[in-house]
Amino acid sequence: MSTGPQHGLVSLRGLGRDRLEGLLDRAQSYVGSLVSSELAGATVTTAFFEASTRTRLSFDRAAHRLGAHVMDLSPDLSSTTKGESFKDTILTLTAMGTDLFVVRHWLADAADLAAEWSGRPVINAGVGRREHPTQTLIDAMTLRQEFGHLDGLRMAIVGDIRNSRVARGHLEAFPTLGVKLTLVGPTPFLPNHNPWGVRVSTELDDELGDVDVVYLLRIQNERGASQAIPADQSYARRYGMNAERLSMLKPAAVVMHPGPMNRGVEIDDAVADGERSLILDQVANGVPLRMAVIAEALGGTG
Amino acid sequence: MIVIRNASVLRADGIDQSTVVIEGDTITSVGTEPVSNGARLIDAKGVWLGPGLVDLHVHLRDPGQTWKEDVGSGSRAAAAGGFTAIVAMPNTVPPVDGGSSAVAAIERARAVDTVDIVVAGTLTEGRAGKEMAGFDAMYEAGVRIFSDDGDAVPEAGLLRRIMAYLRDLPGAVVAEHAEDRSIAGEGHMHEGMVSARLGIAGLPGVAEDVIVARDIAIAAEMGAALHIQHVSTARSVELIRDARAAGMSVTSEVTPHHLALDDSALEGLDPNLKMYPPLRGAEDRSALRSAIRDGVIDAIATDHAPHAPSEKAVPFEEAPRGAIGLETAAAAVASHALGEDQRIFFERMSISPARIAGLERQGRELEPGSPANLVLFDPARRWVPGSFASKSQNSPFAGMELTGRVLATIYEGRVSYEGELI
Ligand SMILES: [Zn+2]
User: Fold this and answer.
1) Is B303 designated active site?
2) How many domains does chain B have?
3) Which of A133, A247, B331, B383 has its CA at a distance of 20 to 30 angstroms from the CA of residue A43?
4) Looking at the structure, do residues B11 and B73 belong to the same domain, yes or no?
């Protein structure tokens, strides 16, 4: 298996529509498929320096389904806090026979550096506040299943966008796929510059009637976001997706959330568990999408 | 005796092609002297000859962090960069914040015979931003520039008391690293397009602007001499321009990297491009270039900040701040801002900084009787910086072609650096 760092998925930036749609097609072909032996003999290492059981398990399951062996970086190792030990860890895991790394880290360049240091392909499973490419592709896949196409859809991303790696991944890929994005939130939650040239709004209620997708994000208190707005209930009042706001949507419009949700803040139970919600579809698509990304990275023909 | 022929010589009333004769530590003639026997002859056709460069802002890391740099390696780097005087920032370990640390630093500096090392002192004791430093003892030892570089004085009230005191010491300069920490927070790069896209915590330009505005207001009230270090924003430039137009003695400096680069260079998250203040946006950079040409900003200063290769070979957000600059300063400035005009080049890189630091043997036009602190600089020579005399190699210009090269440096009549003389 001769693959290099160039085969991984570190960033969605600059990826062409063909490659993105190819990944979505491949992921779709894995839906409902049984165990394959496509990657038998390969070793996939999940290196999570930041806790995320859901994402890690999803990658783990995807790799197993392809017949790969999975090494997991145990939690006590992931309690390392310095970049230098990060490097040592990557070099050790490389020497132990890793063919592909899946990296989650709080540092923005962790996936790039893991690829550089290891010489192996790396899948970015969420780095810094920069990108979470597989979540973005999962959401694209889910929307394509729902609408049959992506071109021309309008999506409002609502919430703590400034701190969101998911939103930044969306901003790199959805415009390429023909989806028009609007960023919605109070100014302290909006990016302080707009290199993507997308629409920006501070009034959710003005946007709801125009969009096909409302994509909700939680407030990342661990990144200090709670200090950027008043500590009362005003966020939920202005931006929380509730039954009333649901009624302002177009009939076919849907609601999505990458999880974990803060029910009663950015999303009410009636919305999360209602029939307009695609949240469980997003979760279900995690494994086939990650199978597609892993298989592509390791050069399987699919 | 050294004789330099055919160079383009910076004189008091213009630039001319003359023969410059150096005897001992002094220029003895500028004109068309016949060459005496036994002289070292340098033919410098097409090359600029001017006063040795003066750097108001260097971190020598000595004492305390000598794996990054020390007085010896920093002096060699300075000479290689065309400098005959450098101001050593006081944020060593321990810092220069009183009489004994100043005397010790000055003694170490005197032992160096390739460049003047001018010792600066802190504004606050221990550089802790709480109490005034030992100004009188430092002043008595010869210190004139005071700075808590790395940090601004955090409290306006403390700065006001410091300025009220220092205004009474002739020649004393309050030099400020203008950055409001409550705004800058834990940022890693300029808050702009690149930080927004990569999701990296930003350092907003306004963190600098508010300190520059505050300091100007207090200096205006107190009549103290204020120097703003490494100006990086367009708004700071406006504030300084307005203050000077109102007759205040506010001086300032800008680094070569802020003139040559902007934050678009940070897309690749190269730790060697991480410094504070950070590389700013393109509009800031163009305001800085206009300001250094116009003279709103007086001086180029490198903010030479060495860090060992292993310290920089880490993820961007964990890398220490700072870049080396002594050996590329003249070339970067000639390439990106002042390469057209020999007079302005030497004004900003030698004459003005020497005046701000109060150095009588530096920054003098070449006339009989002038001290022989000189640099030969070829403004047309192309080269690609690779390895450095500094102990550290964290240059933002490594691998980048520059136009303009230091060919030789003469310190007090002796050749302190000799590069590729034609
Ligand atoms: Zn500084």
Assistant:
1) yes
2) 2
3) A133
4) no
Residue B76 lies in a domain: yes
Q: How far is A72 from chain B (nearest CA, A)?
A: 22
What are B339-346's contacts with CB under 8 Å, separation 24+?
Answer: B339/B379, B339/B403, B339/B404, B342/B8, B342/B10, B342/B15, B342/B48, B342/B50, B342/B379, B343/B10, B343/B15, B344/B293, B344/B295, B345/B48, B345/B50, B345/B377, B345/B379, B346/B10, B346/B48, B346/B50, B346/B51
Q: Which of A107, A164, A187, A194 to mutate to test the interface with B (most CBs of B within 10 A)?
A: A107
Judge whether A193 and B202 are in contact, CB under 8 Å.
no
> Measured between CB atoms, does A86 come within 8 Å of chain B?
yes
Q: pLDDT digits over A108-143, tens only?
A: 999 999 999 999 999 999 999 999 999 999 999 999
**B64 and B41 both lie in a single domain:** no
Task: Assess whether B124 and B145 both reside in one domain.
Answer: yes
Is B239 found in the same domain as B156? yes
Q: B35 with B170, same domain?
A: no
Q: The CATH number of the domain where B304 resides is what?
A: 3.20.20.140
Please check whether residues B257 and B404 belong to one and the same domain.
Answer: no
Among the candidates B357, B381, B408, a domain finishes at: B357
Is A107 within 8 Å of B318 when comparing Cβ atoms?
yes
Cβ-nearest to A83 among B192, B197, B315: B315
B281 found inside a domain: yes
Do residues B168 and B270 both lie within one domain?
Answer: yes
Whether residue B364 lies inside any domain: the answer is no
* Cβ-defined contact of B191 to A192 (cutoff 8 Å): yes
In whole angstroms, what is the distance from residue B136 CA to residue B39 CA?
Answer: 46
Among B136, B152, B52, CA closest to B102? B136
Compute the count of residue pairs across chains A and B with CB atoms less than 8 Å apart: 58
Q: How far is the CA of A135 from the centre of ligand 1 (A)?
A: 41
Catalytic residue among B263, B303, B341, B378: B303
- Written as tens digits, the pLDDT of chain B (422 aa) is 999 999 999 999 999 999 999 999 999 999 876 666 778 889 999 899 999 999 999 999 999 999 999 999 999 999 999 999 999 999 999 999 999 999 999 999 999 999 999 999 999 999 999 999 999 999 999 999 999 999 999 999 999 999 999 999 999 999 999 999 999 999 999 999 999 999 999 999 999 999 999 999 999 999 999 999 999 999 999 999 999 999 999 999 999 999 999 999 999 999 999 999 999 999 999 999 999 999 999 999 999 999 999 999 999 999 999 999 999 999 999 999 998 899 999 999 999 999 999 999 999 999 999 999 999 999 999 999 999 999 999 999 999 999 999 999 999 999 999 998 75
Task: For residue B198, give the nearest of A130, A164, A196 by CB distance.
Answer: A130
Q: Answer with the one of B304, B331, B357 that is the final residue of a domain.
A: B357
B317·A128 Cβ contact <8 A: yes
Q: Are residues B333 and B381 in the same domain?
A: no
Q: With beta carbons under 8 A apart, name residues in chain B contacting A163.
A: 199
Nearest to B314 among A83, A192, A195 (CB): A83
Q: What is the dihedral of CA A254, A255, A256, A262, to 10 degrees?
A: -170
Q: How far is A35 from chain B (nearest CA, A)?
A: 37
Are A109 and B316 within 8 A, CB to CB? Answer: yes
Residue from the list B192, B269, B316 with its beta carbon closest to the beta carbon of A193: B192
Smallest CA-to-CA distance from B395 within B292, B286, B304 is with: B304
Q: Are strands A122-127 and A100-105 parallel, antiparallel or unpaired?
A: parallel
Q: What is the CATH number of the domain that holds B33?
A: 2.30.40.10
Joined together, the tokens standing for residue B187 give 């940022």
Amino acid (one-letter) located at A203: E
- Find the domain containing B96 and state its range: 53-357
Residue B226 lies in a domain: yes
